[in-house]
Amino acid sequence: MTDPSHRDVLHVALGLVPFAGIFFLWFMGAVRDYFGKAEDKFFATLFLGGGLLFVAMLFVLSAATYGLLASADTSQDSSQLQLWRYVRQFVTALLSTYCTRMAAVLTLATTTIGHGLDTFPRWLIWLGYLVAVVLLFIDIPWSELIFPVWILLLSSFVFLADRHHRGADTPTS
Question: Tell me: the pLDDT tens digits for 53-83?
Fold first, then answer.
């Protein structure tokens, strides 16, 4: 936080967060479109609620981090140092506890819907349940990064499966 070049990089990263939220909502729409009307309403509600809460908490996390970054520039008296420590703990708790748990809910709901509709391969189902368990119950450093990896794998699968499906529907001449 004291190195200006690191703060500049963090400013750029925080500026990209709204776009990440938009892309994540786009991802949610693509997955729901892939599932179609046959999705289970209970798990579809968990999927939608978990995803929206995840994005909302990601935005709050970013705003709090931006505030923390802005306060790092000021002189540190004892009351300001206490506030800085509080915001730092708030950001850490929001990321490591609340965002990861909502990511787990979204992962669990998505995997259960895909399993119930028989639209996901077995490896993706097992991976989804494993990711959900890790995000819910295992608190190890950097474990939050398995969620974007799972999202990348799921997005790739949905894209390729939908592309293959649409290609099969195209009449040949």
Answer: 999 999 999 988 888 787 766 556 667 777 7
Please provide the DSSP assignment of 13-47 as one string.
HHHHHHHHHHHHHHHHHHHHHHHGGGS-HHHHHHH
Buried b / exposed e over 46-65, threshold 16 CB at 10 Å, is: bbeebbebbbebbeebbebb
What are the CA-CA distances from residue 144 to residues 16, 17, 124, 153 (Å)? Answer: 18, 16, 18, 15
The pTM assigned to this predicted structure is 0.80
Helices (DSSP H) in the chain: which residue ranges? 4-35, 41-71, 78-93, 100-116, 122-137, 146-169
- Record the tokens describing residue 41, joined without a space: 């309403």
Condensed to tens digits (0 to 9), the pLDDT of residues 31-55 reads 998 888 888 889 999 999 999 999 9
Helix, strand, or coil (residue 48): helix
Q: Which residue has the tokens 């506890």?
A: 97
Q: What is the CA radius of gyration of the chain?
A: 19
Give Cβ neighbours of residue 107 (< 8 Å, ≥ 6 apart).
Answer: 128, 131, 132, 135, 147, 150
Four-point Cα dihedral 70, 76, 80, 81, nearest 10:
100
